[in-house]
Amino acid sequence: MQLGKDLQPVLAIEAVDLLARLPWPRQGLNALRAAATPTDLLLVLHGRAGGSIPAEIDQLAAELQIARGGRVFLQALTDEQPPMQALNFPPAPITLVPLFQLPGQHVQFDVPDIAAHWRSHGWPLRRLPFLGAWPLWQQAIGSALQAARTEGLRPLLLHHPLSGSLAFRYVQLLEQRFEAPCQPWCEPAQLYIDPTEPQLLVPLAIAANQISAALQATDWPVAMQLWPPLLQQQHFYSSLLKQLVSLP
Fold first, then answer.
1. CA atoms of 63 and 72, how far apart (whole Å)
2. CA distances from 234 to 24, 140, 151, 155, 241 (A)
3. Is the pLDDT of residue 106 over 70?
4. What is the pLDDT of residues 42-76, one digit of tens each?
């Protein structure tokens, strides 16, 4: 896949792509399976306190394991125990999928460290870009936002606190691509909203986390609507499942 023209200058010296080049197969899925066994998958996510895995990620992993006929490993960054999976299973080709919407510190530092850990134990590992950079994922979000606009809602994108120039440029990219403002979501009380305007709050959360739970527990004005985490919405879940099943 080619990078969009609007991103080429930005990414001239960046190590993290904001619009991913992904190895989607050109042939049909049946032909792919007949040609070779798909690699194992390593899904890396933020996780909840104590390394807890959100239910939607557990379900995704279970369906992927059945559909692909291979192993699917989960690694949560909130897990305080050292990752032992790389030691406990025989090495085989594996694809690391970073389930992050934004290129923050986890994408820039933690994910490369995890990839290096698995490789150091003999796993031939291919690392994909973070999920938020995938063109088909961006298209799915853009289509859903456009559908909300046709219903008279004005989207407001919410992101967790960020640092670093790459992350902030990505936020600017989202504002341009989705034609919607994007602001931090530290506390619901800090959000600037117009209670008289039909507005759609869009937390850029792949799966349930502490902040999405706080937003859902907030008593919003009647005119306000709130998206649940993305993978709790069937069209996003199905889109990601289809893309991951078709990975070689």
1. 10
2. 22, 11, 19, 19, 10
3. yes
4. 999 988 777 789 999 999 999 999 999 999 999 99
How big is the chain by its Cα radius of gyration, in Å?
Answer: 19
The backbone torsions φ and ψ at residue 225, rounded to the nearest 5 degrees and listed phi first, read -120, 150
Percent of residues in the chain assigned helix, strand, coil, to nearest 5: 40, 15, 45
Query: Do residues 72 and 18 touch, judged by C-beta distance below 8 A?
Result: no
* CA-to-CA dists, residue 19 to 37, 126, 137, 220, angstroms: 27, 17, 10, 34
Residue 101, C-beta contacts closer than 8 angstroms, at least 6 positions apart: 130, 131, 132, 159, 204, 205, 206, 230
d(CA 131, CA 123): 22
Bin 223: left if φ > 0, else alpha if -120 < ψ < 50, else beta: alpha
What letter does residue 42 receive in the DSSP assignment? E
User: In this structure, are residues 203 and 211 in contact, taking their beta carbons and an 8 Å threshold?
Assistant: yes
Tell me the three state secondary structure of residue 58: helix
Contact 25, 242 (CB under 8 A): no
Q: For residues 23 and 1, what is the distance between their CA atoms, to the nearest angstrom? A: 9
pTM of the model: 0.84
| Token pair in block for residue 134 | 């995938």
Q: What type of residue sits at position 187?
A: E
Residues with Cβ < 8 Å from 35, sequence gap 6 or more? 27
Using CA atoms, how far apart are residues 167 and 103, in angstroms rounded to an integer?
A: 5
